[in-house]
Structures are given as C-alpha cells and as structure tokens.
Amino acid sequence: MSFLNNIKDFFGMGEEEYEVDEQGYTKDAPYAESEEEAKRNKVVNIHATAQLQVILVKPEVFADTKQIADHLNSKKTVVLNLESATPDVTRRIIDFLGGVAYANGGNIKPVANNTFIITPYNVGFVGEDLVGELENNGVFL
Questions:
Q1: Around Cβ 96, how many Cβ atoms within 10 Å?
Q2: Of these four, 9, 68, 99, 136, which has the most CB atoms within 10 Å of its CB?
Q3: Residue 113 class from Cβ within 10 Å (0-12 exposed, 13-18 middle, 19+ buried)?
Q4: What is the pTM of this model?
Q5: Phi-psi bin for 114: left (phi > 0), alpha (psi -120 to 50), beta?
Q6: Residue-wise pLDDT tens digits, 35-57
Q7: What does DSSP assign to residue 125?
Q8: 3-class SS at 78?
Q9: How would you label 39-67 residue by residue, b for 16+ Cβ within 10 Å and e otherwise?
C-alpha cells in the first residue's frame, strides 16, 4: 500500500471494496445504478438553464462599471455598447471589465465598432471568424 493510500484511508477517503451481484448492483453499499440505467436516467437541472441572461448596457461614465461587474460576477452575459463614452472612458471600462471577466474565467470579444460581448466561463462564443474580420477592419482591443 502506498503512502497516498494510507493517507486516504486515515481520512476515510480510501476505496472500499463491495461484492457485485449478477445484475451489476453492489451488496452492502449505497444504491448504485448500473451503467445502462445511468445512461437512461439523465437528469437535467432546468434551473441552471433558466438562469442564463443577457444584459444590454450603455455606460457613459466609468462609475457605471460597478453594476456591470456585478452582472458579470453573477454569471450573466453582458453586451457592452460604448458608442456614447469618450475614448479615455472607453479604454478604462474595457480594461476594468476585461479584468473582471478574466478573474471569473470569462471572455471579452468585440462584436461591432465600440460594442463588446463579455461572457462568463460557462457560456461559449461561436463566430471567431467575425472577431478576426473586425480586427482587419480596424477594431482592436
């Protein structure tokens, strides 16, 4: 027995051995589905999919970013329209919200001139060709 297994056994995390009957169930163990039953009994958490939201924001001053950061921290997708912000404020907002997205494992991508989408880690982004096209047309992060 290795040192790691000794530590697992000490803390009660070691592997326990159970007898398996002819139907694939374990004896003297908590109920465990057979592999075939597990495939048939897929459970989907409806609340997880119902909670996805997209928030549209159009900040004009840097002070508006706190509320946007709160949306990102609560795993909501944000579409950020910066057309009415000055170039200096735009840069500060992008830098700050890019940091919030990075800290949460998310991404920030340009979708149009002065418009960005910020997604949390659990939302995928399809259309990477569009981002390259925007960069070729003069939209840079």
A1: 15
A2: 68
A3: exposed
A4: 0.56
A5: left
A6: 565 555 555 555 555 567 788 99
A7: -
A8: strand
A9: eeeeeeeeeeeeeeeebebebeeeeebee
